[in-house]
Structure formats: C-alpha cells, structure tokens
Amino acid sequence: MPDIRLSHITRSFGAFKAVDDITTVFPEGTVTCLLGPSGCGKTTLMRMIAGLETPTTGSINFGDRDVTQLAAGQRDVAMVFQYPVMYSTCSVIENIELPLRRDRSLSAAECRRRADEVLEVLQLGADRHAHIRDLDIGTRQKVAVGRAIARRCDVILFDEPTTNVEVHAKLALIRAFKEFRARLRQTVIYVTHDQTEAMTLADQIALMQSGRISQCAAPHVMYDKPESRFGGWFLGNPGMNFLAPRNREGATLRFDVLPGALALPAATTGEVSLGIRPEHVDVLPAPTAETVPARILRSSITIGGQNLLSLVVGETRLKAKTAPGIPPEDGATVFVRCPLEHAVFFVDGLRLPEAVQRAG
Fold first, then answer.
1. CA atoms of 65 and 191, how far apart (whole Å)
2. Dihedral, CA of residue 285, residue 290, residue 295 and residue 296, to nearest 10
3. For a tag site, which of 69, 169, 208, 328 has the least CB within 10 Å?
C-alpha cells in the first residue's frame, strides 16, 4: 500500500484559504484521522486527496506516483461519505458486488467471496437481499463501508461516516472498521470532528486548525503532549486547564496551584501558562507537602460516573475529575495537587520544549 505525500498543498476560494500550505506524509498501511472543528479544512483536504477538488498549489503523491492532476477514477481510491451513496433499486449484495464486477481481474467467485466476507463482518447476512430503499440510514452506511472495503483499493477515505447514524449503528460501524483493519492494512484517512472516534481508531491524528495541521502524532502523544493550547483545549472532555502564573520575577514563576516556585529555562520570553488535564489534578481530603487548599464551587457527575469538580485556588479556577463516588459538597475545602510530570507549559500558546524545574 502506498503512503500519501502532500507537498505545500493549498486550496483557495477567492481570498479565503480553506487549506493553507500543508506538507505532511500519511504512512502506508496506517489510519490517519483528520480531526478538528467544523470549517477547519478537513473535508476540503480529503476531497483533494480523492481527486474531487484540485489544489490551488502543491502536489499529492501516492507513493512515487504524482496524482495531483489525475481524476478520482484514476487514483484507485474508495470513499465513504457522510450520507450513504447507494444504488437505491438494488439489493445489499448487489450494491457491494457491482463495483467489484467492473474489475476484470476478479472472477465471479472472488467477487462473491469478498461480498460474503463484508456481509459477515458487518452482520448484514439477514439483509443481503433487501433493497437499499427499505433500510434505515445506519444500515445503508454499513453497506457503503462494506462496499468501499471490499474493493481493496490502495487508499480508503472516510468523510465523517458515523455523523448521521444512531448510536447503536455507530458502535457497530466502529467495531466493523476495527475488525477489517486487523485483516487488511490499507492506507486510510478518516475525517471526523469526534475526538473519541479519533482516539479509538487512529494510528496517528492530524489535528487541523484554520486550514493547517497544527500537530500530527499518535493519539497518546497528542493527548499527553499537545504542541499548542488549541490541541490541549480541543482534546479532552473537558479540555486542559490553562493556568496563568500568580506572579513572575525574571525566570521565576509562582502559580496558585503549586506550593513552590518554578524556574523557567534561560531566555524564555512571552506569555507563560501551565496546562494540566482535569484527570491529573489530585483532590485529597487532607493536606500533604505537595498540596494547596482549594474550595469546591460546583460538582457534577460525568458519563462513566466520574465526579467533575470546579475549584478555586486563590484567584485561579480549575477543573478536576475524580473517581466515581460521593462527591464533596459545594463550598467544602479540599486539597489539590498538580503533579509536574503531568503538566505542560506553553509560551505564547505553543508548548515549551524545555523542562521547567522547581526553583531552588
């Protein structure tokens, strides 16, 4: 399977740049999730890879083959859209087999074998002879996914395929996607605004913001070490806490949430903030050497039963996630610890690459 190489790709609509000078590589045989808010350029970038849009500038290569000016049908790409595109008067099995029959290298038996395989994985055996017009949208999307995978193209593109389906159908599609990935190592680009999907499915996430890729990394790296405050905010529910220092004297910082001072790397200039995820804030009933007192403003219960606490420490507000159980009462005093090993420091919105040490 080829890798996908983008070199200085730009797509402009008049004065507006939907995709702005992207250079990156999506490795062969991997799943890359294009993740970001609506309007950030995800779908436009994917449509250029598919051949449905032409770049204003730049080039697209599949391996060593320049496909920038090739039509979609010449690229050996399969694509699944938000809304399933089907032959409405045909049955499920016919929808899956028809694209395969156009490939003269495949025998009728091989076409049927591939179709039967996707029907089994997608649990569509009972619907194999049903007409598409008689199916709900979630089942139609299953068929669209099966048809794309059965073709076994070099590249498969998914444009938010679970956006318009019900929860049970969404879970079934994700399960089937993961099972097919274990069998076939095609190069996949999966567009989504759902961070849970991206964290679950991706080998790497390309996080997009305003037409650019702000970071491209494995999901755990993206989550633990975001390159920007945008990445820390967008990933997570809720996203990172971003805390301003109480005061700064030269290279020495003091934060309300830390008991001691910190020393910045030499010659660090710009606006500094400390980022820490709510689940990494420890909330204790009694003080220790590393804690500071905090007051609970509000507590609520999240999906999964965790407690989400809104706290105030001095003049700083932060959120913490704690294990399921009875949450402390609003207004109660607790003690919080923000371990430095889980803290990320940003300067002018970008991650500080050097380590921050305790002063003295």
1. 23
2. -60
3. 69
Residues 177 and 65: their CA atoms lie apart, in Å, by 27
pLDDT of residue 305: 77
* Domains observed in the chain: 4-234 (3.40.50.300), 241-358 (2.40.50.140)
Length of the chain measured in residues: 360
Strand ranges inside 231-291, DSSP E: 241-243, 247-249, 252-254, 261-263, 272-276, 282-284
Q: What is the pLDDT of residues 230-241, one digit of tens each?
A: 999 999 989 999
Q: Can you tell me the distance from the alpha carbon of 170 to that of 245, in angstroms, rounded to the nearest whole number?
A: 43
Q: Is the dihedral of CA 273, 278, 280, 285 positive or negative?
A: positive
pLDDT exceeds cutoff 80 at 182? no
Residue 86: predicted pLDDT:
81
| 3-class SS of residue 104 | coil
Residue-wise pLDDT tens digits, 101-118: 887 888 888 888 988 888
Alpha-carbon distance of 79 to 158, in angstroms, equals: 6
Q: In what order do the strands lie in the sheet with 316-322?
A: 282-284, 333-337, 292-301, 307-313, 316-322
pLDDT for position 240? 96
Are 90 and 115 in contact by the 8 Å Cβ rule? The answer is no
Q: Which of 318, 345, 338 is nearest to 228 (CA)?
A: 345
Pairing of strands 155-159, 77-80: parallel
Q: What are phi and psi of 7, to 5 degrees?
A: -125, 110
pLDDT digits (tens, 9 = 90+) for 27-74: 998 999 999 998 899 999 999 999 999 999 999 999 999 999 999 888
Find the helix or strand (DSSP H, E) in which 110 lies: helix 108-121
Whether residue 155 is predicted with pLDDT greater than 70 in this model: the reply is yes
Q: Edge-to-edge, what's the strand order for the sheet holding 31-35? A: 77-80, 155-159, 187-192, 31-35, 204-209, 212-217
Per-residue CA distances from 333 to 84, 239, 293, 312, 337 (Å): 53, 24, 7, 10, 14
| Contact (Cβ atoms closer than 8 angstroms) between residue 241 and residue 254 | no
What is the DSSP annotation of 217-235? E-HHHHHHS-SBHHHHHHS
